[in-house]
Input
Amino acid sequence: MEERAGVVFVTADEMRKIDDMTIREFRVDVLMLMENAGRATAMLAMRMLQGTILGKRVACLVGGGNNGGDGMVAARHLANWGADVKVIVGTTKDKMKDVPLGQLHILEKMGVPILSTDYALRDYDLLIDGLIGYGLEGNPRDRVAMMIEGANSSGHPVLALDLPSGMNATTGEAYDPCIKATATLTLALPKTGFLSPSASPYVGDLYLADISIPRKVYQSFGQQNILFQKETLLKV
Output
């Protein structure tokens, strides 16, 4: 845990404890956190698309964990706002956690295209990276690795959700491969890895999203300042 300019940066283990305290002690449902994270991502995506959503082509790259669930919520909002959204999944349904699998079922009912083989990622206005969350240790593999490489070689702007997939949240080490994001929307509190000079080329512009973590949880991890007094998306 480190503090810079009144904002506390946390390790992956500390972020895990923040999530656990929020869900177990304060009974904030994981679906609520996911909804808030996904909507915040969609809002920043709208900003990156210069406020014009209708007809814009967006690919949401998602994994089978909660980070992927956040990305699927973002896909739902963007589709509802008129974007041409496709969801590209880095795993199979049988390997997805229950909560993100539920988000996938919603998208299927909405008629949002669900793909598993579009690694070239041509003809998109924006890519959203929701492949891997803050728990990664070691190189991405298999389909996820190919999707990261495809995103990096596409030439399209990339919005990373919580942190660029392929990065160690605590140290900032970029594994092989690692998303090179245009912007990163990190959730609740930024991660200590972002403070590493080696992380800068991968993170891009860094934003912080309010996902409804109780203030007492923030305070117990040293975040005394109220972060979201004026807006729920902050440039860090």
Observations:
- The chain has a mean pLDDT of 95.
- The longest strand covers residues 57-62.
- Helices lie at 12-24, 30-48, 66-80, 98-110, 142-154, 200-203, 215-220.
- The radius of gyration is 16 Å.
